[in-house]
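note to self: dont lose this again. the chain is below, predicted strucutre after it. 398 aa total, dont forget to put it in the shared folder this time
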Amino acid sequence: MTDRSFLLAWRGALGAFVLAGSTGVLYRIGLATGWTAGFDLVNIRHAHSHLMYFGWVMPALFALMGTYLSPAPSTRRLPRVIGACFAAALLAYPLFLAFGYRPVDLGEARLPLAVIAASLNMLVWYGFVLYYRRARRGRPRSHALHLWDAAVTFLVLATLGAWGLALLQPFGIDDPRWTTALTHVFLDYVSEGWFVLAVLGLAYAVLAPRTGWWDRTSLYLMVAGLPVTFALGMPGSLVPATLRWLAGFGGALVGTGLWIAVVRLWGVADGRWRVPLAFLALKATGQVIVGLLPGLWWADLHGLRVLYLHLMLLGFVSTGLAAAAAMLRRRVAGRGTAVFYLAVGVVLASLLPFTPLWPAGWRGPWAFDVAAWLSPLPVLAAAWLIVRTRPGLDQEPR
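---
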């Protein structure tokens, strides 16, 4: 990618973060006060999460991976893919905000407009997969590439879950177990498989530690456990006992693999990467605990599940993307990145009162007000990162 293409992609992704984060602020205000600007609260949450996934993380990952895979400025296909990614994400955002997953009457037809628009995102992802296969061809094998190979595989598998959902109605299948399972295959393979493994690959690419048996073992554990962990997001009543056991065991495998990666990277990480790695360690600890303690189920503990998802997506993934970008541009580092990290940490801490980790006697309605007042901090920090980003690569990608 050219320097200008990367700059536009990074600023665009941060802009999507600001919009998606502002929508999350509206959601927190709605929980605290009931004011939602006339939108349905559930639709606000869907619009927030979809734009964070598809407008912030996706194009940022595409740009950062592309910078390391194709540092030469001659590759034009990737900027087009990234531009299409932004377009598809921004098309789906207002539709989710207005309608959510609800079908809309258009003449005699009832169509889920937001879902149809969101499906365009998957076509764009296939474009990135084709680019990735060409860009990695002939490159020396590295652990970063092994992680990215696995991440791209889970991205493709996630789309199969989405297409499976689309086929349920034509085949007359109206079973909530299938609907919920395929939904979580899609969402969790994207987040747990694609996002986490891809950002972890960025960490290995920029930090370039010596790799060996432990690193390969870490990846094997994650790849072995990830396929069944989607069930951890389903209500416990919908999950058969055997799948519950497999999902818990798979989560423990993934958490153990992530912990090995954290330990392996910690010694070579600078301050920019130790914060994302600390968030990843907390996420991994949660997976191991849930996997080893019978009767503990993520989906049945809503507050804990919300904290876990934010630890993964806002904690590790978002700060990891900022850390990877800072390795390319010193202007993104320093105060801008540090302030972003601090804002993320404060917002994550504000979610603790909604979990069983918080003392029962200290809980109260005040927690909704605190979470609402603190929620704009990452938005403001991301806006500052946009301002601080300047043209010019500070170093060549490794």
